[in-house]
Design a protein that fits this description.
Helix content: 25-40%
Distance between the termini: 36 Å
Largest sheet: 6 strands, mixed
Number of strands: 10
Bound molecules: adenosine-5'-triphosphate, magnesium ion
CATH architecture of one domain: 3-Layer(aba) Sandwich
Structural class: alpha/beta
Length: 257
């Protein structure tokens, strides 16, 4: 059996006396898209920060390709929920996207090409010289995505990445993510509150229980054919059934024991 891209074993986390996560375990296969859903405040962002190695878990282990995430080093890119705070106000858009490439062995020309390609992929080629504060919320969110794409990560962690873009842009960015995943076999963990999005994008959906002491309630396998299509996939009977199953599972997770 091949080593999973991500292995989460018995992860628990506590803020002060408040236990947010308790005994969370799951794996993500190489190239898989795992969507994570759960009630607001249950600990999804906390989990993503732990997966990214930004917060050490109080308990448990995270391994990327069989190594502890802290040692994994490069190869994990994260787009945080509070993306607007993650864009330095003193850097123009292109310099922000270039920031994670700073300590790589890439030459100047290659770096510029990466930045150009990443901005083009999110439809922002024309704002490369702008300051982030001059962009709309949705555009800032796309800059944060471009910065993650520019590093060509093997693992991409996304926290509600399309929450503040309009419906049409959201569809385009969802399909961009699917294309990037297909082309580069990027392992992706994506947190979303949108159940349709979870089914549309996911190979599996991880359903977390409500807090406190959130754990994995269940996982749903999304066996829809690829490539997916925004109109046809969402209209097919299997999609509608899966969405209903996901809604029912969330309701069960929420029901008092
Ligand atoms: N730095 C922190 N210090 C103390 N408590 C925190 C901190 N970060 C999060 N929390 C608490 O931990 C719990 C989980 O927060 P988290 O942001 O992980 O939830 P979430 O599932 O991402 O919520 P949402 O869906 O609203 O984004 C909440 O009760 C929150 O108040
Ligand atoms: Mg969150």
């Amino acid at each position: 059996m091949t080593t999973p891209a991500l292995t989460v074993t018995g992860v628990g986390h506590t803020y002060g006396t408040h236990t947010v996560l308790d005994d969370v375990s799951f794996t993500v296969a190489e190239g898989e898209m795992l969507c994570v859903v759960g009630p607001s405040g249950c600990g999804k962002t906390t989990l993503l920060r732990i997966l990214a190695g930004l917060v050490p878990p109080a308990r448990g282990r995270i391994e990327a390709a069989g190594h502890p995430v802290a040692e994994h080093g490069r190869g994990i890119a994260v787009v945080l929920q509070d993306y607007h705070r993650s864009l330095p106000p003193w850097l123009r858009v292109a310099d922000t996207v270039a920031l994670p490439l700073r300590d790589t062995p890439l030459g100047k020309t290659e770096r510029a090409q990466r930045v150009h390609d990443a901005l083009a992929s999110v439809g922002l080629s024309d704002v490369d010289r702008k300051w982030p504060a001059r962009l709309s919320g949705g555009m800032q969110q796309r800059v944060a995505l471009a910065r993650a794409f520019a590093t060509r990560p093997s693992i991409l962690l996304l926290d509600e990445p399309f929450a503040s873009v309009d419906a049409q842009t959201r569809f385009e960015l969802e399909d961009l993510l699917l294309r990037i995943r297909a082309q580069h076999a990027v392992t992706t963990v994506l947190v979303t509150h949108d159940l349709d999005e979870a089914v549309y994008l996911g190979d599996r959906v991880l359903i977390l229980s409500p807090g406190p002491a959130t754990t994995v309630h269940t996982t749903l396998t999304v066996d829809l054919p690829s490539p997916r299509h925004q109109i046809d996939t969402r209209a097919c009977a299997a999609f509608v059934t899966l969405r209903a199953e996901l809604a029912a599972a969330l309701r069960r997770a929420d029901a008092p024991a």
